[in-house]
Amino acid sequence: MLSNLKKIILDRPGLDKNIKRIIILESIDSTNLYAKSLKNPLDSTIVIASSQIKGRGRKNREWKSFGHKNVAISIILNYPKDNEHIGLLSILSANSLVQSLKSYNIHGKVKWPNDVLVNSKKISGVLSEAVFKNNKSKSIVIGVGINVNCNKDDFYIDNFQYRLEPTSVFIESGDIISREDLIASFLDFFYFWISEFKSKNYKRIVDFWKSNWDDIGADVSFVHEGEEISGKIIDINQKGELILEVSNQLKIISSGEITV
Asked: What was the pLDDT predicted at 257?
């Protein structure tokens, strides 16, 4: 159990002012589902589970969790008035993950739109979901999963098939680390980038993300709205959208999944 987590978080300068409520659960099916079920949650409510048994990623894929070896966090934010740049919330979450991992001498790379990789293996993912009430956007839930102290045997105990080969902090560093410290570190960086977002410093968010992105110029296949598109990655824009060159024309992709 994450028995000291609340104190560790609130002892960090600034987090006590940014975070309005912390909910720590021993075990839950999904922190995102729990967060979305809350009635009238305060802005900056944090839901953290010591164990998550039915975590989900994009396209409702299963996110594997192993007892008390991973991190599962969901952050509830009021739906931003500037929803034109809402795609940057996943981008800045990835920035925060990269910075947190660097504290452990692990050099993460980002993969559009929501993954963090180490040596081409997936160590973390982000799932952002809007919550609506009476057909109006009410809040957004940003779910983050991090593989922390799991080993290679954990990942393949049931012959699970992964879209991207997984890894963990333990596998990459050889060290068992405190999940509490990693969570607090991530939240520190997350609220720095949220401050940048609220100040409309979009370029700074995107530039940092791009500094940890190796896919510019890569030829990829891409599934967008059920259609497979092949092209070359040119850039991402200030909204966090992918710019793809397809048949000598630029195509803007706001959502989808790179398959190759």
From this structure: 66
The one-letter amino acid at 157: I
pLDDT at 229 (0 to 100): 84
Longest dimension (CA), the chain: 56
Among 180, 194, 142, 182, CA closest to 17: 194
Give the span between the Cα atoms of 213 and 73, in whole angstroms: 24
- Cα dihedral 40/46/48/53 (nearest 10): 40
Q: What share of the chain is helix, strand, coil (3-state, %, to 5)?
A: 30, 35, 35
Asked if residue 2 has pLDDT above 90, the reply is no
- What domains, with CATH codes, occur in the chain? 5-210 (3.30.930.10), 219-258 (2.30.30)
The C-alpha atoms of residue 250 and residue 233 are separated, in whole angstroms, by: 10
* 148 CB-contact burial (10 Å; exposed 0-12 / middle 13-18 / buried 19+): buried
- CA gap 65, 86 in Å, rounded: 28
Q: Is the confidence at residue 42, as pLDDT, over 70?
A: yes
Two tokens, residue 33: 């589902």
The residue type of 150 is C
In this predicted structure, the answer to whether residue 79 has a pLDDT above a threshold of 80 is yes
| Cβ-Cβ contacts under 8 Å for 204 (sequence gap 6 or more) | 196
CA proximity to 254, closest of 244, 246, 50 = 244
DSSP string, 113-153: TTEEEETTEEEEEEEEEEEEETTEEEEEEEEEEEE-S--HH
